[in-house]
């Protein structure tokens, strides 16, 4: 409690203010370091995750960042508790006997120390929450990385099976492409033959007209008709053989 007498009371108040300022300075330094730890945690933990190739130990458990976080959080909470106690003593002093109740300077000083305590408390909880959120995200990413490494270091059967599936898929795509090309060639050949058939019919019609007039021309037309039927059979056979060969290559 406050000392008796004006001089003793004044010394007691000044002693409380001195303790409050000292605790506030310590908290300020601790909170700056705590904030830096939170900012650098993601980068450092990712770097440690790349160095750690263990499949049985989580990437971030027992890391130096976690230990620093726990230690600094406890220290800051202790300092906040001490500063709260000093502020409570200062409030008791302003309400104690022998101190003017309307001393604006004392009340203003007390309110300023309370505001500082509130700001430091808010900053601590905000930084702590951000740190925990980052650590949770890094733990999740570390678990994903571990699953990927476990898959890569497996027996390779799944990788081999996937490779075979990809090759078979590519083979089917090539087969479809060859079939489409074969169909395109057949359609173009059909169009050409239809066009040639029309021209030949027109020519034959004219030659038949001439054959009726000239017997020698009629004999020549009969020979041409025999040769045309033979050439058509040969062309059809060649096209059929080409089509079969392309289909066999596509499905081998």
From TrEMBL:
Pfam families: V-SNARE_C (PF12352). Keywords: Golgi apparatus, Membrane, Protein transport, Transmembrane, Transmembrane helix, Transport. The keyword Transport applies. It is found in: Golgi apparatus membrane. GO terms for molecular function: SNAP receptor activity. InterPro entries: Golgi_SNAP_su1. GO terms for biological process: endoplasmic reticulum to Golgi vesicle-mediated transport; inter-Golgi cisterna vesicle-mediated transport; protein transport; vesicle fusion. The chain crosses the membrane at residues 233-251. GO terms for cellular component: cis-Golgi network; Golgi medial cisterna; Golgi membrane; SNARE complex. Residues 55-64 have a biased composition (Polar residues). The keyword Nuclease does not apply. Residues 45-54 have a biased composition (Basic and acidic residues). Residues 45-64 are annotated as: Disordered. It is a single-pass type IV membrane protein. Involved in transport from the ER to the Golgi apparatus as well as in intra-Golgi transport. It belongs to a super-family of proteins called t-SNAREs or soluble NSF (N-ethylmaleimide-sensitive factor) attachment protein receptor. May play a protective role against hydrogen peroxide induced cytotoxicity under glutathione depleted conditions in neuronal cells by regulating the intracellular ROS levels via inhibition of p38 MAPK (MAPK11, MAPK12, MAPK13 and MAPK14). Participates in docking and fusion stage of ER to cis-Golgi transport. PANTHER family: GOLGI SNAP RECEPTOR COMPLEX MEMBER 1, GOS-28 SNARE- RELATED. Belongs to the GOSR1 family. This is Golgi SNAP receptor complex member 1. The gene is GOSR1.
């Amino acid at each position: 409690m406050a000392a008796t007498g004006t001089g003793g009371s004044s010394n007691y108040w000044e002693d409380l203010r001195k303790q409050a300022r000292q605790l506030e300075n310590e908290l300020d330094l601790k909170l700056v370091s705590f904030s830096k730890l939170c900012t650098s945690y993601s980068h450092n933990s990712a770097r440690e995750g790349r160095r750690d190739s263990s499949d049985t130990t989580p990437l971030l458990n027992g890391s130096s960042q976690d230990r620093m976080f726990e230690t600094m959080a406890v220290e800051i909470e202790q300092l906040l508790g001490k500063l709260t106690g000093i502020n409570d003593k200062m409030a008791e002093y302003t309400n104690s006997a022998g101190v003017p109740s309307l001393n604006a300077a004392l009340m203003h000083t007390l309110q300023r120390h309370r505001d500082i305590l509130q700001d430091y408390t808010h900053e601590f909880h905000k930084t702590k929450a951000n740190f925990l959120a980052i650590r949770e995200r890094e733990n999740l990413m570390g678990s994903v990385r571990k699953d990927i490494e476990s898959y890569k270091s497996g027996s390779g059967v799944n990788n081999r099976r996937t490779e075979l599936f990809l090759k078979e898929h590519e083979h089917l795509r090539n087969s479809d492409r060859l079939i489409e090309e074969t169909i395109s060639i057949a359609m173009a050949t059909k169009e050409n033959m239809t066009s040639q058939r029309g021209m030949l019919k027109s020519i034959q019609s004219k030659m038949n007209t001439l054959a009726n007039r000239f017997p020698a021309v009629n004999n020549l037309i009969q020979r041409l008709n025999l040769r045309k039927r033979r050439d058509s059979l040969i062309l059809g056979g060649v096209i059929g053989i080409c089509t079969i060969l392309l289909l066999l290559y596509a499905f081998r």
